[in-house]
Amino acid sequence: MKKILSFTLALLMLVSFVFIVSCKKEEDGDEKTFTFTVVYADGASKDFEITTTKNYLADALVEEGIISGEDSQYGLYVTTVDGEYHKWEDDGKYWALYIGDTSSPTGASSVEIEDGASYSFKAE
């Protein structure tokens, strides 16, 4: 009886471990290079060429020290890009994320980086 109970417990622990590992969002992957552009409130812009192993845009830009913000239920709510702060509730502007020339339907925490792609945050 003890052997069956021990085996069952060990099997349960193994299944739990596999489940946790499979559900974990991958944070690092293959090296990718992308272009990131900031369009400031005054219309000026600045380009960055970034090489990273991060899989998600927010993670790569935070690691580079380019963006910061507040954690939310949807991921990072970006309030500061390259030192320029905007928050709708404070100044009526916000940072809009673009993938290429198209407005992103999701936030930077959900955007998977594609090698060679271009992304931008524009103060709007």
User: Which segments are poorly predicted (pLDDT under 50) over 5 or more consecutive residues?
Assistant: 5-25
What is the fold named in CATH at topology level? Ferric Hydroxamate Uptake Protein, Chain A, domain 1
Distance between the termini: 67 Å
Q: Helical amount among residues, as a percent range?
A: 25-40%
Strand content: 35-45%
Report the major sheet: 5 strands, mixed
Mean pLDDT: 85
**Structural class of the helix and strand makeup?**
alpha+beta
Placed side by side, the strands forming the largest sheet appear as 2-1-8-6-7
Instruction: Estimate the global geometry from the Cα principal axes.
Output: globular
Give the SSE order as H and E letters: HEEHEEEHEEE
Radius of gyration, in Å, reads 20 Å
CATH arch. level architecture: Beta Complex
Given the structure, what is the number of helices?
3
CATH class: Mainly Beta
